[in-house]
Amino acid sequence: MPKKYIDLDTLKYILYDVQKLENLLVRERFQDHDMESLDLFIESVKEFSDRELYPYLQEMDETPAHYKDGTVMVHQQVPVMMKKGGELGIISASFNYEDGGLQIPFMAHQAAAYIMDAANNHLPGYAGLTQGAAELIIEFGSEILKETYVPKMNSGTWGGTMCLTEPQAGSSLSDIVTKATPTDNGFYKIAGQKIFISGGDHQYAENIVHLVLARIEGAPKGTKGISLFVVPKHRPTSDGSLEYNDVMTVADFQKMGQRGYCTTHLGFGDADDCRGWLVGEENKGLAQMFLMMNSARIAVGRGAAAIAMAAYRTSLQYANERPQGRKLTSTGKKNPSEKQSLIIEHPDVRRMLLLQKSIVEGSLSLVLLAAKYYDLVHSSVDLAEKEKYHLLLEMIIPIVKTFPSEAGAMSVNNGLQVLGGYGFCTDFTLQQYYRDIRISALYEGTTGIQSQDLLGRKVPMQNGKALELLAAEVMQTIAQASEHPDLVPYAKQLTTAVQLSQQILQKLMPFALKGNYERYLSDANLFMEYMSHLSISWLWLEMAVHSKETLIAEKLIYDTDFYESKIHTMKFYFTYELPKTTSLAASLMSDEVLTIKQDKEYIL
Q1: In CATH, what class is 159-286?
Q2: Looking at the domain 8-154, which fold is it?
Q3: Catalytic entry in 444, 529, 542, 577
């Protein structure tokens, strides 16, 4: 296992210097905090992760969560995660004071969570889902629901989940059949099944508070008829005790990765005594759940970016320690009498490491940018500013969920290759990271779902205003880069990519205007890949500009090599990855239609 699972200097550099956390602290919502207190919070989470998370990473993979005697058996560090998470404020950190929170910027909260994900990605989800469930109760629940559940969830005493997926309805939430029957006693009878429920049950949980999507009898069909309910495993009684609420754990899914993070199959109302309490209004459940979706999708991208970071640190350490082969001489031959070279000296290994570095640090900047937009939306008192950052956030949410997940898996795959045969062996964690990260492209909507959201909903939003705002942010960075002669070629290259994206939409948009949405969205995944490369190139150019200006001003917090490495990695991404947009554009603008089902079947 690596000596360092995270590059804390880079995390702080992007958080403090590039994305400028301090600029948020002038806002009324965050005025009680300063940089010293937030840095202390992040350092305390790092210390907690070093001690309580990282040492158990491999052990949790080797002894996975499993179903036994009606519950799920999980590792003994799960209650430590929940209890300490509550004490450190990890669960409630970004909530308002009146809701038991610390009211810190979401961006700082995400940075802390990133450290935990990098240390041990099997554990933070238990606290993260509890936070998401509590957030929904806070936002839409009655005062009684808030008083009953939120304090116990914030402290980590009770867990929380989101229950959407059913055996017959995965991403198609309009097809859910879990039923809610009204009673005269202020609650509903809940009956149905939910699958793939992360953190759904375990032997250490005093209680699990499920946020369940269900359909009230007589409700409209489709997503318009879905309501949201609080359904605890054990319902609180008037005397403060708990009684079983007819929520049964049917099984735990055995997975290829994240094996220490339980994923349950739950049954509600098998004995006709499962009670649920409506959250907010009837038939508004999906809209309410989507409040959480933005933060949940940021969290998925954050987790994938963190796993890729830990894998990069592992492969980088290996490359700096492993002697293998010799450098080629000027004659093209190796001298067997020379000492073996460390593999980091070989160009092919360096290419793979640079690919990892560019994906890992670009993903981190993307995650923190999304978190910053989230903070700006929730802290702004100016309606125009709030609307601007809401649109920017909506525009990049599918990208921040998808790029770290998809490119992160490619990054870890390159890490495996750096280790050679050892990468395939359980002695090293690369194979575990490779298995762990694969779920990220499935969580909170698959890549196909995110791609259709990007092209189908976000690009046309307000007649393209969200996309225009994002393009303006990119062009601002391009203008800054153009002030430095050695960055001008890269500014021009990114400008060309922006212009080409406009040509792609000019080709595709007429299909949508004519109502041919199947054709419009048939290559949405390719458009997602295009926009991902464009976005990460933008963020790398932003880092290069900042590093360049820091070096010129000689206001160095880190050594010169640190800043020069950022500029070098930007050049790598622009040389090896951004050019892929050209081939993607060719496919997107092709007149060939090969993936839409025709009368004759060609997939045989």
Answers
A1: mainly beta
A2: Butyryl-Coa Dehydrogenase, subunit A; domain 1 (1.10.540)
A3: 444
